[in-house]
Amino acid sequence: MTPSPAKEYRVPPGERSRWQAAIKKAGENLRYDLPASLVVFLVAVPLSLGIALASGAPIVAGLIAAVVGGVVAGALGGSPMQVSGPAAGLTVIMAETINHFGWATTCAITLCAGALQVVLGLSRIARAALAISPAIVHGMLAGIGITIVLAQLHIVLGGSAQSSPIANIKDLPGQIVDHHGPATLIGLITIAILLLWPKLPAVVRKVPGPLVAVLAVTLLAMATGITLDRVEVSANLLDITFVPVFPDQDWVGFGMAVLTIGLVASVESLLSAIAVDKMHTGKRANLDRELIGQGVANMASGSLGGLPVTGVIVRSSTNVQSGARTRASAILHGLWIFLFVAVLAGVLHNIPLAALAGLLVHVGAKLVDIGHIKEVVRHGDLAIYLITLVGVIAIDLLTGVLIGIGAAAVLILRRLLWSGIHAERDGDQWRVVIEGALASLSIPRLTRVLGGIPAGATVTLELVVDYLDHAAFDKLSAWQHAHERTGGTVIVDEIGHPWFERGKAGEPIVRKSDAQRVLPRWFAPWSEWQQAHEPDGPDGPGDGLALPAPRSGQPPIHLGMIEFQRRTSHLVKPTLSRLADSQAPQALFITCGDARIVPNIITTSGPGDLFTVRNIGNLVPEHAAVEDASIGAAVEFAVGVLKVRQVVVCGHSSCGAMKALLSGVPDDSPALRSWLRHAEPSLERARTHPPVGIDGTPPESEADRLALHNVLQQLDRLRGYPAVERAEALGELELVGTYFDVGAAEVHLYDPATGEFRAAGTTIDPLGRAVAG
């Protein structure tokens, strides 16, 4: 048989185009990732050496961790922009671990800590890091920074770091006054260069400051020939024959070290990833995957004799600021460090230890960020920040963070259970105001306030509470009964969920489904919020609750003003204060005087947004009309002086003016008849033009159909005003037709392209803002 010719495989056109697009995109990203990786590499080398020095580990351990962190964590992690390596936050813990177990067993601890991180990542609990307060994070970083500074200052000053931050603080005064040699000069020059570098021109700052500082003082030391302690490395850094060693005893201590390093490395990496996400607009971090990637990297680093790896905010922020696009930048930075070790390891012998110590002093000081402290103060979390900071310095990092979390939990509990309770005289009556969550912890204060109310007084119990527990409910109910037995009166004025609505009967309302649905007072008609509860009366028992009775027959409008003064004034005062001397509204809103139309509600706007004109039928007289120039004056002022961007004419359903046009104005209303003459062209338009639809269907009511034509007629009238005509021609003004269906509570906007009104969800709102459909 003749063998059949081999079939040629052809890549489908669609698949080929996808591959071509992917390759093109990768090439475009590499233009940004390659230079960014070089910048991060230059920052990482001196930092890795300094962290190894501060940890008491072999110098090469920092470089191994940098290579593994870049390549392994960069490739497997879930935060594309994060760069990993040896972390300053673990220096104290690592120093203690190395001192207790020795370097070989410490590597085994790092390996096991990595395995723990992988398990944690697979269990999908990494998102719990999102619940940690920023005050704890900033306090932890500041504590780490101060710890590093305290230790490395001793080396800069020619001494040796002590075993703990407290010991470093005690010995620092003596170290400062002691004799200083060349090491101090080198360390101070390093710090000075790092402080000066950000103030130099941007062109110069393209070279990383840490690299310049270490290189400059190294060349100075070589040129002057001064005697200094320098970096000690083996002749061949690539000759790695190290194997981690597990201990023969103290397995409990070993396990605790694994747990501590694993948890601290995880927390630091996750918090760093969250912080990095805030620096760029690209893909968000997958925290579970990030934890797995960090764990695999730590297993590899421990196996090769490296320090523990974490996500590092210094390198990561440098990566983002240098324009990196993908994880390729982090991976490449690790490869550059490997090439550096392979080719230029010999130059490490010349670096003074004081230079690395000076670099770490600068890095540690930057972790105490004044901007973070201001942010914490603004949110009222300074106590949490300080507690975490002191805990990290006085005890250790993990314990300090746990203490900070505990303090945050206590503060949150206090805020949740806080209640503002005070009594105030209200004329010849009393008012007891209770705000927040009223729980049993507040009963002593509640008892003291209620005890100050005179027997027989009329008391308004104003409750604005988020939660009312059993003990507090019983206390209020018992006090109400006791006060009324003395001849007093208790009026319950409750805002929000009616916890105490049936308090006199001893029946709490816990579930929202049991509560009567009452609209917010700023929206509901007076009749609804004032008569939500009826007192006992001759026609039968009510619920025994009512709002304060008006004094001397106060009308509803007066009560509404009192309500504004008491509950709303302080909320809107900051906004109105800014608007006190000027206004810059976005739109002129011309609508009917109908009481059911509330412009600021249907446009979701507030003070200063709308310049509103209201009249019967939302009419605009001809520009030449002189019998009523008020509308024309408002139009000219809004367009010519205030420079509004839109003029909105808003009609509505069931309009009394439109009905009067159709049925005729009564003879005893000459003023109304005179005014509605301005609407006669709208009536003629409705008779001669096809019906205008709402979403394709004209309204059933003839008055509503006329209202739609009336809106369009008033828009045409507006174009006859010279100020409007001129602004519209220049593209500075837009005319918008709007129709509000009162019964359906729906806003419709006129679409000139279709000649119909459409629901606001398919177009833009009266202020020109996009509204989702």
Automatic annotation (TrEMBL):
Zn(2+) binds at C592, D594, H652, C655. Binds 1 zinc ion per subunit. GO terms for molecular function: carbonate dehydratase activity; zinc ion binding. Residues 530-551 are annotated as: Disordered. Its cofactor is Zn(2+). GO terms for cellular component: membrane. Its EC number is 4.2.1.1. It comes from the Bacteria. It is found in: Membrane. The chain crosses the membrane at residues 34-53, 60-81, 101-123, 135-159, 179-197, 209-228, 251-276, 335-362, 382-413. InterPro entries: Carbonic_anhydrase (IPR001765), Carbonic_anhydrase_CS (IPR015892), Carbonic_anhydrase_sf (IPR036874), SLC26A/SulP_dom (IPR011547), SLC26A/SulP_fam (IPR001902). Pfam families: Pro_CA (PF00484), Sulfate_transp (PF00916). Residues 30-387 form the SLC26A/SulP transporter domain. Gene3D superfamilies: Carbonic anhydrase (3.40.1050.10). GO terms for biological process: carbon utilization; transmembrane transport. Its main location: membrane. It catalyses: hydrogencarbonate + H(+) = CO2 + H2O. Belongs to the beta-class carbonic anhydrase family. This is carbonic anhydrase. It comes from Herbihabitans rhizosphaerae.
